[in-house]
Design goal:
The chain is mostly helical. 2% of the residues are buried. Helix content is 77%, strand content 0%.
Length: 65
Amino acid sequence: MDSSIGKADKGILIRYYKWVCFGAVMDMPRGGMKDDMQAIYYRMGQLKEGMLEEMINRSVRENAD
């Protein structure tokens, strides 16, 4: 991660991704473990591609102002 990202924003991003992962894990038993989680995570990664980088870049730009 870029060292110029603020500590508060870095913490927020880490917390966000923890919540996303925790929610996915908590949802698996509710779905009866029938879904192909590998395929779902792969597709989620494709859909989210570039999002983390954009959030970091936005934080760096806003903290530079």
